[in-house]
Amino acid sequence: MQGFALPADFLWGGAVAAHQVEGAYLTDGKGLCTADVLTAGDKHTPRRVTPGVCAGCYYPTHDAIDFYHRYAQDLALLAQLGLKCFRTSINWARIFPTGEEQTPNEAGLRFYDALFDTLLQYGIEPVVTLSHFEIPYHLVEAYGGWTDRRLIPLFVRYCETVFARYKGKVRYWLTFNEINNQLDFDWPMMAYANSGISPEPAASFRQRVYTAAHNELVASALAVAAGKRIDPGNKIGCMLAYSPAYPRSCRPDDVLAAQAFEAHNLYMADVQCRGAYPAEVRRLWSREGVSVGETPEDAAALRAGTVDYIGFSYYMSKAVSARGVRSNPYLEKSDWGWPVDPKGLRYALGTLYRTYQKPLFVVENGFGAADTVEADGSIHDPYRVAYLREHILQMEKAIVLDGVPVLGYLVWGCIDCVSFGTGEMEKRYGFVHVDRDNRGAGTLRRCKKDSFAWYRRVIASKGEAL
Ligand code: BG6
Predict the structure, then answer these.
(1) Mean pLDDT for the stretch of residues 299-313
(2) From the CB of 21, is ligand 1 less than 6 Å away?
(3) Which residues are CB-neighbours of 131 under 8 A, at least 6 positions away?
């Protein structure tokens, strides 16, 4: 398929997150993190949060794909794609094992030094998330996670440490991964993922989520300010999960419902981009009797710490009616029930740019599917190529035809990794297959899929040869 050639400095890349690939969950002084107490689930069985590590439970992050020990070979392989950048996260608990130490864990810092140095040797720019769905587990036990504002200075200390340590190596940063996911009250695991919050007691759940979200917004703003102070060349973005809300029909009630859904989903972006809360969310809180404890110092920090760009993940759109989120009859779904909507990516880019006028960065897009390894070891994944091709084409139209400034495009899980939503290994996104199954069995051998050569051609042609 013929696409549009994008500028030479466009950041084509791939993305993963520390706990979904590294394994080595207690190696070299790392502390337990919240992701380490999430059991594996599957399409039909939700993951469970256990009180600490329980005997007899299977936790897929403990070994993941052993990237901690194999990153050099993995990056050598991924470099063959011609990646311009690679996104991963720093696991806070590798640097401050409980979150409360006064001095960082040197072994953890050295690991990321080696990782970033390896990327730079290949000419690949690191894009680094400061908090991707994990915090030191101790902070949940001692403070109840992000509901307690004492986490703010602890997070800022961690950020200052890594900004100083990796100055000159890392320029692109993201603060909290998919910070707005916790606002999906129908999927309470996300409040645990973002903030270490339990859904019980239910009566205070929303109050606790909004408070934690506020504390993270302040921490994010302070991190942006610290990152700029330490290296004015840093480019620091927010990271949203963005599934644009379409009205399920043109019934005015559905249109208003979609508008309200969208406003709620984006209020954290409003704060991170504009430095203040929008009126709607304050009205909502006053109706619900929520108080997030905002201080005048918080308000000043939010104003001073707006982001340079909007990083966002795009997997799907949503169809919203006055009765809630409904399925969209015009879209096919993946085997995991995720609607597939390439044009929604063009729509998302246009909407975000018109709303915020900030550069955008598609830091996650991809297709989770089961792959079959043939007898000769080959893996044919035309469904993944079809998904990516259509999405990239729509992004290119947004850039070239609509004039939306986009910094780059990262394919999620460019090497197979643990699915966050289900904890499965066999919901695969990668160009590189990893021999490991949902129960942790397998040789961990890496193998290129057909999509590998396709993405290499896309990058080499600057996006023209789709
Ligand atoms: C995003 C997350 O929500 O989607 C990733 O930032 C996650 O951590 C990705 O892995 C894909 O979701 P899943 O549930 O298929 O792994």
Answers:
(1) 98
(2) no
(3) 89, 92, 155, 175, 176, 177
Q: Tokens for 461?
A: 């042609």
Q: Which one-letter amino acid corresponds to residue 210?
A: Y
Please state the three-class secondary structure of 273-334 as a single string: HHCCCCHHHHHHHHHHCCCCCCCHHHHHHHHHCCCCEEEEECCCCEEEECCEEECCCCCCEC
Cβ-based neighbours of 246, under 8 Å, separated by 6 or more: 258, 317, 318, 319, 320, 328, 344
Residues 178, 216, 396, 424: which is the catalytic one?
178
pTM above 0.85, yes or no: yes
Atom of ligand 1 nearest to the CA of 177: 6
Query: Which atom of ligand 1 is closest in space to residue 421's alpha carbon?
Result: 14
CA gap 9, 84 in Å, rounded:
8
| Count of CB atoms situated within 10 Å of the CB of 456 | 16
Catalytic position from the list 22, 216, 364, 396: 364
Query: Would you say how long the chain is, in residues?
Result: 466
Mutate which of 419, 425, 426, 438 to test ligand 1's pocket (most atoms within 8 Å of Cβ)?
419
Give the pLDDT confidence of 414-426 residue by residue, as tens digits: 999 999 999 999 9
* Catalytic (active site) residue 374: no
The question of whether 364 is a catalytic residue gets the answer: yes
